[in-house]
Amino acid sequence: MTRAATQPKENMGAPEPRIDGRLKVTGEAKFPSDIAVANPAYAFLITSTIAKGRIAGIDLGESITVPGVLDIFTHENIGKLNEVPFVAGGAGATTSIQQMGPDIHFDGQIVGMVVADTYEAAREAAYRAKFTYTEDKPSATFDAPGLREEDPGEVEERAKKLPQAGDAEAAIAAAPVSIDVRYGTPPQHHNPIELFTTTCVWRDGELTVYEPSQFVYGLKNNLARKLGIDADKVHVVSPFVGGGFGAKAQLSPRTGFVAAAARKLNRPVKLVVTRDQGYGVQTYRAETRHRIRLGAQPDGKITGYAHEGWELTSRPDPYSVAGVEDSARLYSFGAVKTRVTLVHADRNTPGFMRSPPVVPYVYALESAMDELAVELKMDPVELRRRNDGMVDATGKPWSSRSLMQCYDEAAKAFGWEKRNPQPGSMRDGDWLIGWGCATAVYPTHVGAAAARVRLNANGHAHVQIAAHEIGVGVNTIVAQMAAERLGLPVSAVTVETGDSNLPPSTVAGGSNQAASCCSVVLKACDAILDKLSRATTTTGSGSNGRIADLSGAFERLKVGAIEEYAEFIPAGGKPDALAQLYQGKPTLAGGSHGEKLMYALGAEFVEVRVHALTREIRVPRIVGAFAAGRIMNTRTARSQYMGAMIWGISSALHEATEIDHRNARYTNDNIAEYLIPVNADIRDVEVIFVPEKDDFVNPAGIKGIGELGNVGTAAAIANAVYHATGVRVRELPIRLEKLLV
Amino acid sequence: MNTPSKPASGTSRRTFLASTMVSTMTLTLLDRQRADAAAPPLSKDTARDPLRVTLNINGRDQQLALDVRTSLLDALREHMGLTGTKKGCDHGQCGACTVLVDGRRTLSCLTLAVMAEGRAVTTIEGLASADGTLHPMQQAFIDHDAFQCGYCTPGQILSAVACVNEGHAGSDAEIREYMSGNLCRCAAYPNIVDAVNDAKTKMQRA
Amino acid sequence: MRPFHYARAETLQNAIAAQQAQASIEAGHEASVAARAQFVAGGTNLIDLMRLDVMRPEAVTDINALERSPSGRIELGERGLWLGALVRMSAAADHPDVKRHYPMIAQSLMLAASPQIRNMASLGGNVLQRTRCSYFRDASYTECNKRNPGSGCAALEGVNRLHAILGVSDKCIATYPGDFAHALIALDAVVDIAGPSGSRTIPFAKLHKAPAESPHIETNLQPAEIITAFVVPPTPFARRSLYLKIRDRESYEFALASAAVALDMDGDTVREARIALGGVSALPWRARAAEEAIKGATLSDDVLQAVADSAYAQAKPRGENAFKVELGRRTLIRALRQAAALEI
């Protein structure tokens, strides 16, 4: 028995090993840049070294003479490519800045692309290219001169109606206990280990694109738009993705350039963006600031919650996450006042990065909750209990809510009752010990999807759905759903995903895949069972029908196989949701936007150790308990939770993209100085599954979990650091110099 | 269009170099086609001539004609169709490109292909038995779910095999430290440690 | 990466001759990073910098065959500990004699880089590694006195949390990032060098140059010279030594601050000490004033503070690296306490 094979509890599926495991451990799993194409030419990007200004001159004299160079593309000769609208949320392009110049809008903007017979020649020619610029003074980040503030509600539907309830100002002013605190989070980059790659192959006017993608239908349709061709002529192939985390979800400018180059040269073109180029070529989590005010009664009841957030974005694009939408629901506050301000700077456009709205906003709220608990001289878990409830401040009810079960189970496993609340009171030799906790929360999303399932007479089933195996285990849980529904062993099911020739599913974002894909696969399987049931004399049609005599049923039907195509639209979804999806427009429903609040919840407890003298911060122990409705597979779910909690540790202690304020350029654009945890940073990570049943959220009863575990962790750690040292760090990351006092 | 460039110190350098090449017989230049006494100066253009490189990968010798700048990683991936080894950073910062060279774990991105000549290179493709039986480390990675997206996994597995063979897998703490040269963004670290602990007992039995 | 000529040297003489044939450094003028001929052993620094287009040698001589020469050996003998320059870091880190007699050296190696890099990298290459300054490593910044002598230093007013506070000048504040060098400088190692004019031996402390007015010249090596070995003199009390490395994450990261410490103790009194400070200096840094301050003392809190003060008295912090003064002091104090408490 391995730790990975966690025993399922009620409403949880078996810990099946990943069906693609063998492929991954043998190196046979093909990531898009692994797929061989005939006679590729190699591309290498040239990116701008200023953040704001204009290209003054391009001298390619030395570049074009590098042997093997086939062509060099700049704004002067890339040709016309259509603009694909920027859409914050998966449907469109990552940014409206899609040209190679001459205007420069951010450091790292693609200004050129060399294509050559060899990678080495392309790279050399790129380095020899001489671009000169006229440079303007850029606004790099918060507090820089020249920023522009904007209310996102004026430009974005999503942000129009942020939660408001009652008179929070008055409540806070009248509250016997109140706090008024500010927090800040840095820019962070996804940094999946797989780089951003694009390979384009044209044949007879049809384009095949090999690119790691979290939304193959979005990429297909948007790329077609960019190139001005029919979407049916674009085929996206992305069988495995080496980590997405939000970075591979939308069309980025590079893809159109590679496609155009391949078309012009009439030869496949392969691009592997370098790690440092990736910082500007794709998106990132922008820096945020927060002001939180909480007013409470002496018994802990919070009468007023006011949360103002500031988020950085690029000059032209109003990208915001507006996480108050979710944080305002978290407790039964008496009154709520929220506001978000967008701050436009000379940077690349941000995009969603694992748990986009809640990582920064719940970090702030959960830190504030801890500060309030200290003011109230109250145990932080009890403070949550006082404010727990099934209805939020606006009167909206939860479809299910198991927050305190999570707190109680995690607290017990952690040993929380042994905590001495006095900061600096716990110590082990030279190490100060701190214990902290925080809430984890993530909206439950479900999207439209389609799938095809074929059942053969020999009892083998094949599932086809353009889902995205980014490491979450979707291949496996789709196989489990089909196996369970059709009464087959998992080993008799094969799954095909990651290809735009398959029936579409929504962008792998918002942790919707399990719910959406399982819901539609369930439907397709039920349709098969329905057909079979008309031929069988034994029990079963519809759900849970097990066909005892499969081959007999097939004989009676006189068919070799039964294949069913099914479509699924979530409750409240528009009737044309699938038609939209085929065109690359996803719709995700859920979270706070329906008649009930749909969220997965958890509670995380961490132990930090701070060296008494040199102040390194280490996290030897973390316990997370999570309730997320139906769990399809406790093996993959446990890994998701663990991985996410480690992301949370990383977010608290390690990750920050550094910016030179003089020129708005990223300086640690690599994976050595941009710190993520190494194996030695992580010790005990315990995952507790709290059973929960919720039939409201979607037919499969699944709440997504991929983005749950890394929410709140940063606050738990900040709270623990306070407990260890008495120092309250309100700006992430928590670095040792902040404790060298 | 090739424009020959002048060597830095002209004729004197050329004659000195030519005489050096003739007199020191143990100095080997790889491109045998240009290694004769009356060779023209080593210009930028001759630096571009492809080198004939013989690489021993998973027990098989293969002859390639490569740009001298080609990394072992790119030689495997782009010239030999062995895409199991992955590029994560190309600067020796992530470990995804880890292969074994003469049994020692090595970063193939910082190894020039030409510098791997004469050595036995093992990639992930060479780990399982000829009959398809997985190496105990590969099986342990599956059993303990020691991966999610799978991209860093080939590098992790080879690194783990070498870690055990080096004698650096004695305790959890040692495994964690000695596996820290392989980044995993999905953060499968605890399961990786479990897998190494499991596989090492089976490797020692074998 | 620019094209280059690759050649393998089978012997030391070949290596020197090959380098000499290509080299054209005018000492003092051309930046050492711009040298037209380079040696390559592990390649973990050179290939990295070539791929960044920071280094563009025209000729690279592969000296890995020298691993079969005395430069590939570790030996404990009369001169002390012989560490051949072509020995790999991992071999030295795991060597029983090194671990037993010079734990500071073993730890400085074992705590560096990653297992893969340690398998590849030679001791000589590790000592000669170049700074990690992000402005140095980004060829698009023209303002870098190491790459373009006289052009200025972009780090002075830039992102400089990781930059140096000791041994710096207003021309360059780049940190020397190595660990092993600090064990060598602490223990009075010498460097055996071979070159066109023959062999010579210099104290390790004379190998590197402070940036001063010419950050582009990093060492006192002459064109075509090659380090063949490091020799650490017999230092019995080096058994009471350690290398303490403080960093943001637990491993695979350069030092924020480090201390290489060896103590010769008579009961509770320190007869003498060897101290070197890493992660905070522009070149390998021996803390001689601190060694004086600790001589004959017992390690009370006051004494430790005074020793730390003298070690960092000349520190010149700048911008975001100011915390390194306090961190450096505490790192030294912690290292001294730990060294004193070792059970020998």
Could you explain the architecture of this structure?
The complex is a heterotrimer of chains A (741), B (206) and C (344). With 741 residues, chain A is of the alpha+beta class. Helices cover 24% and strands 24% of the residues of chain A. Chain A has 17 helices and 28 strands. In chain A, strands 3-5-1-12-9-10-11 form a seven-stranded mixed beta sheet, sandwiched between helices. Chain A has a five-stranded mixed beta sheet with strand order 7-15-14-13-8, with helices on both faces. Chain A has a five-stranded mixed beta sheet with strand order 16-17-24-25-28, sandwiched between helices. The longest helix of chain A has 21 residues, at 513-533. With 206 residues, chain B is an alpha+beta fold. Chain B is elongated. Chain B starts with 9 loop residues before the first helix and ends with a helix. Chain C has helices at residues 12-22, 46-51, 89-94, 96-101, 103-110, 115-120, 123-127, 180-186, 288-294, 301-312, 323-341, and strands at residues 5-8, 37-40, 59-62, 74-76, 81-84, 190-195, 198-203, 226-232, 241-246, 257-266, 269-278, 285-286. Chain C has a five-stranded antiparallel beta sheet with strand order 4-5-8-6-7. Chain C has a four-stranded antiparallel beta sheet with strand order 9-10-11-12, with helices on both faces. A three-stranded parallel beta sheet of chain C has the order 1-3-2, with helices on one face. The longest helix of chain C is centred in the C-terminal third of the chain and has 19 residues, at 323-341. Chains in contact: A-B, A-C, B-C. The B-C interface holds B 8-9, 13, 16-17, 20, 24, 26-30, 42, 44, 46-48, 51, 67-69, 71, 90-92, 95, 98, 104-107, 110-112, 114-115, 159, 162-163, 166, 168, 177-178, 180-182 and C 1, 3-11, 13-14, 17-18, 21-22, 24, 36, 40, 42-44, 47-48, 51-52, 58-59, 62, 64, 90, 94, 113-117, 119-120, 250-252.
